[in-house]
Design a protein that fits this description.
Oligomer: single chain
Order of helices and strands: HHHHHHHHHHHHH
Mean pLDDT: 84
Shape: globular
Helix content: over 70%
């Protein structure tokens, strides 16, 4: 969804060390994508997950199919991080073609991941119409009974679709995609799904502001803060803080207007002692604005 790839030069791949690592877990839980990249780099992750998928072998059992497909997804992710987008799309198509049309594939996390990542990668290539089609196909295949691990892709697919629609200048459709996140997930209480609702509302507010629809943008940011401002999960709560920052981000001239100063003070009061370091960092950035009122009064006295 517009995320920049890691890029950069590919480091040399230590094939012997990768073989040793593959032998070490001997069919147990393999290391995570992050662990593999930290050890072998993205180029090494391509080799590692390619070999891991071959060990699972497609077609043995549904469990082995899913494990193999997850490994291939990780290979695609590594190719994406290397900026090798066309190769990544081929990898995702391999998963979809292997058993994406099968009934088992309807509740497969790996297949949902592959469909979403294919659309996201098409966005990186500016093939926005194809990206939208890929996300629409994913959305059509996620049923109401899907597991949470699959249902999160409702939100991610709509966020990616909204990005592509915006890039094509189809802003009303992009706004509708953000609304659809709310409509499809609002009744859910799971934190991962609530985070996507908050994310979608926040992005809708930013898009409305960019279109000059300020009153609608402010109402949207208010919905985020009212709904999620006291959420116990930092990954959700931070969207409320960001929305509050957006509400006061209308500074003009050397000094921000009185409403901006009051708004900054309110954010600092509510969140300066927040347990999440990212939220505290946002608040620290507002402290100078919150103090401007005192400075201005001292200048006038």
């Amino acid at each position: 969804m517009g995320d920049a790839p890691a890029g950069g030069q590919e480091q040399a791949v230590d094939v012997a060390a990768i073989a040793d690592a593959l032998d070490a877990f001997r069919g147990g839980a393999p290391p995570s994508y992050g662990e593999v990249v930290a050890t072998f780099g993205a180029a090494g992750a391509v080799v590692f997950f390619d070999a891991l998928a071959a060990r699972y072998r497609f077609g043995q059992t549904p469990e082995y199919d899913e494990a193999a497909a997850q490994a291939v997804c990780s290979k695609g992710r590594a190719l994406f991080d290397l900026g090798r987008f066309e190769e990544a799309i081929c990898v995702y198509d391999e998963i979809i073609d292997s058993y994406g049309a099968d009934v088992v594939g309807l509740d497969s996390v790996a297949v949902a991941t592959a469909r979403f990542q294919k659309g996201r990668t098409l966005n990186e290539l500016h093939r926005f119409d194809e990206a939208i089609a890929a996300q629409d196909e994913l959305l059509a295949r996620i049923g109401a009974a899907a597991s949470i691990a699959v249902r999160v892709y409702v939100g991610w697919a709509l966020l990616s679709k909204a990005f592509a629609l915006h890039e094509l200048g189809r802003t009303d459709e992009a706004l509708s995609a953000y609304d659809e996140i709310w409509e499809r997930l609002d009744a859910r209480t799971e934190p991962d799904l609530r985070e996507l609702i908050a994310h979608g509302l926040f992005e809708k507010g930013k898009l409305l502001r960019s279109l000059g629809r300020e009153a609608e943008a402010l109402r949207t940011f208010e919905r985020v803060t009212e709904r999620f401002g006291e959420s116990p999960e930092p990954a959700i709560r931070i969207y409320a803080v960001r929305a509050l920052v957006q509400k006061i981000d209308r500074q003009q001239g050397r000094l921000p207007p009185r409403g901006t100063i009051a708004g900054a003070r309110e954010i600092v009061r509510r969140y300066r002692d927040d347990p999440d370091p990212e939220i505290r960092a946002l608040v620290r950035g507002l402290n100078p604005v919150a103090r401007v009122g005192k400075w201005a009064r001292s200048r006038r006295s």
